[in-house]
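for the recovery benchmark. tokens below, seq after
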């Protein structure tokens, strides 16, 4: 039985060892040129549309510049256990649906109609997968088998928010760390030696290995921790404490934001739970279906509707304007959405495409493109929200920027109601 004092000493030793491992890893990365990855240098590692969607589509497309023909798409379909005739195939990217949404990838053959929704950092959208399934089923007209794949870094399931009424059994979860890595490795092996295609595929393969922790620091640390009982016990204690530390950081942010809003005359209310402590605890310790949480307040009301400012967190914090009906329920108002878009812009958040957001942003475009406030975070550097928000001055700065943009948005739409 390990005493608390002894365990504390083991934790301190492990933290020292972790620090030295990080330093050694950074030196080795510089020496081996691992950091010289085009996607990393250009700071587009997690750009879902500009990097991953474009690259994967180009590789899937039989007429792509890779000159590998049908091999990539045929290989991926085999990996995800679809037996189709890959020589009668059409691949589309950002495929527009009847409702105005865009499916990341669709693959159509004589016997199958396949949709792939990819998520790296972006959160789920309301009824997204349900709408995609309905769209593909409509197109198939019972002549083709419809399959929907949900592609994430580690194969996690979609939220009920995205599924809507669609049973989870209709969704096939696939991952970058298994399916896409296997696919890329096979494509690299198929590409001609010394070719630019092979070099480019290897660059993207290295990026995916980094994002899925198949290479880099995490494997080294996991090997170190798994080497002894004491280190594993110490690591488990640290791991448990980290989640509570993250919860504490989130509470500080919401409390400081709430206090600031009250100080300028707003009447914020908490949603997703009864109070700030409740929503923060639910975010970390309940299912992902408890992750649409935040603060909202009313800025306009008449006999038929009210307009609310929402500051919401799912994975990334996003904020903007939404409409409630006379029963105080979220509603869709396309005419009002168009008017708001003309005054304050559509927004730069994924949810800006959602009909029940009038306008939605991750950040103020006038402030450039700061690192998003991401409470579901894969970065492990100084840009990580939890690292950045340990300093009160950083929280204060981002809250000030957030409120300034929100107030400009609220001011810009006043003409709609006068």
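predicted aa per position
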């Amino acid at each position: 039985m390990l005493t608390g004092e002894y365990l504390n000493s083991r934790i301190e030793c492990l933290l020292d060892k972790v620090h030295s491992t990080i330093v050694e890893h950074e030196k080795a990365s510089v020496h081996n040129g691992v950091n010289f990855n085009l996607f990393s240098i250009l700071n587009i590692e997690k750009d879902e549309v500009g990097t991953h969607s474009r690259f994967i589509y180009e590789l899937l497309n039989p007429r792509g510049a890779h000159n590998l023909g049908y091999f990539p798409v045929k290989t991926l379909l085999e990996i995800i256990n679809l037996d189709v005739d890959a020589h009668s195939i059409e691949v589309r990217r950002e495929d527009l649906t009847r409702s105005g949404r865009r499916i990341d990838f669709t693959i159509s053959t004589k016997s199958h109609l396949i949709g792939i929704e990819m998520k790296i950092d972006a959160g789920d959208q309301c009824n997204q997968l349900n709408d995609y399934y309905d769209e593909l089923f409509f197109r198939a007209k019972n002549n083709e088998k419809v399959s929907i794949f949900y592609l994430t870094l580690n194969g996690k399931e979609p939220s009920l928010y995205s599924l809507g009424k669609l049973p989870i059994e209709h969704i096939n979860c696939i991952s970058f760390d298994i399916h896409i890595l296997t696919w890329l490795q096979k494509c690299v092996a198929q590409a001609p030696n010394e070719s630019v295609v092979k070099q480019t595929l290897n660059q993207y393969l290295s990026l995916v290995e980094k994002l899925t922790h198949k290479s880099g620091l995490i494997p080294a640390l996991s090997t170190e921790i798994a080497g002894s009982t004491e280190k594993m016990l110490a690591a488990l204690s640290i791991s448990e404490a980290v989640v509570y530390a993250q919860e504490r950081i989130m509470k500080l942010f919401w409390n400081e934001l709430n206090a600031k809003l009250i100080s300028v005359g707003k009447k914020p209310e908490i949603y997703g739970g009864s109070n700030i402590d409740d929503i923060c605890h639910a975010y970390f310790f309940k299912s992902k279906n408890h992750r649409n949480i935040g603060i909202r307040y009313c800025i306009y009301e008449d006999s038929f509707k009210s307009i609310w400012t929402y500051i919401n967190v799912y994975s990334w914090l996003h904020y903007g304007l939404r409409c409630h009906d006379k029963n105080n329920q979220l509603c869709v108002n396309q005419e009002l959405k168009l008017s708001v878009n003309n005054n304050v812009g559509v927004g730069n958040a994924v949810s800006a495409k959602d009909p029940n957001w009038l306008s939605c942003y991750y950040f103020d475009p006038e402030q450039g493109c700061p690192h998003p406030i991401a409470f579901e975070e894969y970065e492990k550097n100084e840009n990580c929200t939890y690292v950045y928000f340990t300093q009160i001055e950083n929280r204060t700065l981002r809250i000030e920027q957030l409120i300034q943009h929100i107030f400009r948005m609220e001011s810009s739409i006043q003409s709609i109601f006068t």
